[in-house]
Write a structure and sequence with these properties.
Elements: E1 7-13, H1 21-32, E2 36-42, H2 48-57, E3 62-65, H3 70-76, E4 79-80, H4 82-87, E5 92-96, E6 99-103, H5 106-116, E7 125-129, H6 133-144, E8 149-154, H7 157-170, E9 178-182, E10 189-195, E11 212-221, H8 230-238, E12 242-244, H9 247-262, H10 269-278
Parallel strand pairs: 1-2, 1-3, 4-6, 7-8, 7-10, 8-9, 10-11, 11-12
Antiparallel strand pairs: 3-5, 5-6
Helix pairs in contact: 1-9, 5-6, 5-9
Length: about 280
């Protein structure tokens, strides 16, 4: 009996040895009874485009992209989703009708995770700290999910303003719900506060203004680790009743990539529990 050739998928980055993606995607495939081989690809910095082209020329089915190549993946894709265009970054690549397509699933992954945490963005007042690529990747999905207001604060407010202007040009229907400011511009009461900076990777944390957390508000850090991050600890001290890190977002954005490639979205609960136990 012939075993069907597995669909070949991978994640490409530099460095890449730490990536949990093979474990996550193999678990997804197993749960759905699909034959998938998923590997890590370490690309030297100058070789990224050629490595991607070689992967698909050899029959590659789907490719995840991580640091530092997401912007170059966006430039390489012939067709990109609206969320990828705002982000200027792609984390999911696939071929369709001979052309390379790209999407950014980070924001969709965040929305799925927030809903699992009983923090559906619909009707919520959301404050995002940071105006880098992570914020760009999640704005459209959060607004599509029905956020009542969404404010971006950043050490350099002009960067937040630039993102807001680009979004207003590309998706003008969202402009009335968007606001920007400096790290001190935290006025108002917030239902969801998201740290989209890398500050939690250090110990100093962020020097932002005092945040008025609404009752049952969630403080969410896109960074994840074995212990609560400095942002999560600070948020609890300021009155956030609930805190979460970004491990769930990692799994959910992977599930969204998997759904693009294979047409069905896998369940995530078991994988999330396994990864949390490993940490």
């Amino acid at each position: 009996m012939n075993t069907p050739t597995p669909a070949h998928c991978a994640v490409i980055g530099h460095p890449i040895a730490h990536s949990l993606s093979p474990q996550i995607h193999h678990a997804f495939a197993h749960s759905l009874g699909l034959n998938v081989h998923y590997e890590r690809i370490l690309s030297e910095i100058p070789d990224f485009e050629r490595t991607v082209q070689d992967f698909f020329a050899r029959g590659g089915h789907g490719l995840n992209v991580t640091v530092p190549f997401k912007e170059r993946a966006f430039a390489l894709a012939a067709h990109s989703s609206p969320r990828a265009r705002l982000a200027g970054a792609v984390n999911t690549l696939w071929m369709a009708e001979g052309q390379l397509h790209g999407c950014n699933t980070d924001g969709e992954g965040l929305v799925y995770d927030l809903k699992k945490l009983h923090a559906d963005p619909k009707g919520q007042r959301i404050l995002i700290i940071g105006a880098g690529g992570a914020t760009r990747g999640v704005l459209i999905p959060l607004l599509e999910a029905g956020a009542q207001t969404l404010k971006i604060i950043n050490r350099t407010p002009t960067r937040a303003t630039q993102i807001a202007e680009e979004l207003s040009t590309q998706q003008p229907q969202f402009a009335p719900r968007l606001a920007v400011g400096s790290l001190q511009d935290t006025q108002g009461q917030w239902d969801i506060v998201i740290n989209a900076t890398s500050a939690s990777l250090g110990t100093a944390g962020l020097q932002h203004g005092a945040i008025d957390y609404a009752p049952n508000a969630l403080a969410y850090d896109m960074v994840y680790g074995a212990q609560p991050t400095p942002f999560m600890q600070h948020a609890q001290a300021q009155g956030a009743q609930r805190v979460a890190d970004g491990l769930g977002m990692l799994v959910e954005q992977a599930a969204s990539s998997f759904a693009i490639w294979f047409g069905q979205r896998p369940g995530t609960t078991t994988v999330r529990q396994q990864l949390r136990a490993q940490l």
